């Protein structure tokens, strides 16, 4: 075609596509990802800087004699530290982690460190995945992270079960950074579905905070577990936005220009609606907290603002071309900026002089708003035709909704389960059956409500 027309037609189209991609990427900033989100409150964001310090404590060889503690220390009482597992203990099957019994905040915390660039085993966990390799609970998850989470749960199941039963009013929190965030998210996923493993722990007691999260689960799972899993992203962090399979990046180091060209064409030509309908595509899990501290075309850092939402579309889809894309991934910077944001929230509350009673009422209102936002996200996923997504059961459901309700309630976790259900749900209740259950006929043949149901009415 190009030779016949005398013009390099295909080359011109390719260059225009690349130019459009470059133009959109240069103008895209981190603030665009959360521009429509609401502001987080001090009550819901309070655990984040504290858990960041717990994760940093995993890097210490001796918590009683720390070498790298941040200003103010780790906030850990060494006597409350239950156990600490190193790479030697895990034999490379999972990153290092600690189990801490936080009596001050009524919390049982399992904190997992991030990727160790000097450990080959961490790369093996990260690269043990292919697109659509592992089906799980009606969706897809990262295979290597799921296996690492399974190993941790098998190793600490008895200890966790004992702690959960001894402290029934304590929450169980999984926290991790980078690679550890994916393992923590998978742990929350497994425990939330297999609650019997930890003494039938209530779902409301299970929490997960994924700091600088890896994209580890499909969109339907990411939204469905937003009531349990929370992800924290600092400004331009690259990892939650890296949709390209990481194994392809490592395999393509010798042909990186080819990879970039293919990525350019893919982002330019494939609409987001089509990406949402790919059931194998992985996303950052749960509710998202976005710490924004820089503004476009301005120098320096500004007072950090924390935005939060349970988004379905526009869920950190595009990489931000920024010199801070890698530094914003560091746990040290995330801890520092999250603490700054928390201090600003508390200072604003002190200025407003909110009484304790109003604080409790605000906490209750916040819980209701989160539940409403969670249900709205599930419904939004259904409206966008996200694969294997379904609406939550309504409080006043009709008989026509019974099939969707059963699908919602019958979703069971299995690491080897297939996507969706192979069989149909139970049949709907017919009107004739309903009438026979509720009414009888009198001597004249008229319908009369059964005596057993009159008291209920």
TrEMBL record:
Gene3D superfamilies: alpha/beta hydrolase. Residues 9-75 form the Mono-/di-acylglycerol lipase N-terminal domain. It comes from the Eukaryota. One of its GO terms (molecular function) is hydrolase activity. GO terms for biological process: lipid catabolic process. Residues 1-19 form the signal peptide. Keywords: Hydrolase, Signal. The keyword Hydrolase applies. Residues 109-244 form the Fungal lipase-type domain. This is Fungal lipase-like domain-containing protein. It comes from Gossypium tomentosum (Hawaiian cotton).
């Amino acid at each position: 075609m190009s030779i016949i027309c005398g013009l390099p037609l295909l080359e011109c189209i390719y260059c225009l596509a690349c130019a459009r991609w470059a133009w959109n990427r240069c103008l895209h900033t981190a603030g665009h990802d959360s521009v429509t989100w609401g502001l987080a409150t001090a009550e819901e964001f309070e655990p984040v800087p504290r858990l960041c310090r717990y994760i940093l404590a995993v890097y210490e060889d001796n918590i009683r004699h720390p070498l790298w503690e941040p200003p103010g220390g780790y906030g850990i009482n060494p006597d409350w530290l239950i156990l600490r597992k190193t790479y030697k203990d895990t034999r490379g099957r999972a990153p290092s982690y600690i189990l801490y019994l936080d009596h001050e905040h009524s919390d049982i915390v399992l904190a997992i460190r991030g990727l160790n660039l000097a450990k080959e085993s961490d790369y093996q966990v990260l690269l043990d995945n292919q697109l659509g390799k592992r089906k799980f609970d009606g969706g897809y998850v990262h295979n290597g992270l799921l296996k690492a989470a399974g190993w941790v749960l098998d190793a600490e199941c008895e200890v966790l079960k004992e702690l959960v039963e001894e402290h029934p009013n304590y929450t169980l929190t999984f926290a991790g950074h980078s690679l550890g965030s994916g393992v923590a998210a998978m742990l929350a996923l497994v425990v939330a579905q297999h609650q019997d493993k930890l003494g039938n722990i209530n779902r409301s007691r299970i929490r997960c905070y994924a700091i600088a999260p890896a994209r580890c689960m499909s969109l339907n799972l990411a939204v469905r577990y937003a009531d349990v899993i929370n992800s924290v992203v600092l400004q331009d962090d690259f990892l939650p936005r890296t949709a390209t399979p990481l194994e392809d990046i490592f395999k393509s180091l010798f042909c990186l220009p080819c990879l970039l060209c293919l990525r350019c064409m893919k982002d330019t030509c494939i609409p987001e609606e089509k990406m949402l309908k790919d059931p194998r595509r992985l996303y950052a899990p749960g509710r998202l907290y976005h710490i924004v501290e820089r503004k476009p075309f301005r120098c320096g850092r500004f007072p950090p603002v924390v935005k939060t939402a349970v988004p379905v579309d526009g869920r950190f889809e595009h990489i931000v071309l920024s010199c801070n894309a890698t530094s914003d991934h560091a746990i040290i910077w995330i801890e520092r900026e999250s603490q700054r944001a928390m201090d600003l929230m508390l200072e604003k509350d002190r200025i407003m002089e909110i009484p304790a009673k109003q604080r409790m009422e605000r906490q209750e209102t916040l819980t209701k708003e989160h539940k409403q936002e969670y249900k709205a996200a599930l419904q939004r996923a259904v409206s966008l035709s996200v694969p294997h997504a379904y609406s939550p059961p309504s409080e006043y459901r009709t008989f026509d909704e019974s099939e969707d309700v059963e699908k919602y309630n019958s979703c069971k976790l299995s690491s080897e389960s297939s996507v969706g259900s192979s069989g149909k749900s139970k049949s709907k209740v017919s009107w004739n059956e309903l009438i026979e259950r509720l009414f009888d006929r009198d001597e004249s043949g008229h319908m009369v409500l059964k005596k057993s149901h009159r008291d209920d009415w």
